[in-house]
């Protein structure tokens, strides 16, 4: 199944694209109104924990990052059991 956010994004892009036909724009508007509550979809907070941990570890080891950010990342890693 396709990601609803991607479908909505495609239809919204079509509506704002000056190179698409009025007929195509009408179709996108109908799909958004009928199937996606006018384009309002719930955001998913399903993040891959391994990717999150990897990003936090990169923050801890990045010399360009402030000590405050490093401490925050380290704390979040501890909460994740990493």
Strand content: under 5%
Number of strands: 0
**Helix/strand/pairing class, anyone?**
mainly alpha
The whole-angstrom Rg is 20 Å
| Helix residue percentage | 55-70%
Please provide the ordered H/E string of secondary-structure elements. HHHH
Distance between the termini: 33 Å
Large-scale geometry: elongated
Low-confidence parts: none
Overall description:
Helix content is 65%, strand content 0%. It has 82 residues and is mainly α. The longest helix is centred in the middle third of the chain and has 14 residues, at 22-35. The protein starts with a helix and ends with a helix.
Q: In brief, what are we looking at here?
A:
The chain is an all-alpha fold and 82 residues long.
Secondary structure: elements and pairs:
Blueprint: H1 4-16, H2 22-35, H3 49-61, H4 67-79
Helix pairs in contact: 1-2, 3-4
What characteristics describe this protein?
82 residues, mainly alpha, 4 helices, 65% helix
């Amino acid at each position: 199944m396709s990601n609803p956010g991607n479908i909505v994004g495609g239809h919204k892009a079509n509506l704002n694209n000056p190179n698409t036909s009025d007929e195509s724009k009408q179709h996108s508007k109908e799909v958004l109104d009928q199937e996606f509550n006018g384009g309002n979809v719930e955001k998913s907070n399903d993040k891959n924990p391994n990717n999150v941990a990897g990003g936090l570890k990169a923050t801890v080891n990045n010399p360009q990052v402030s000590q405050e950010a490093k401490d925050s990342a380290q704390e979040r890693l501890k909460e994740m059991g990493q």
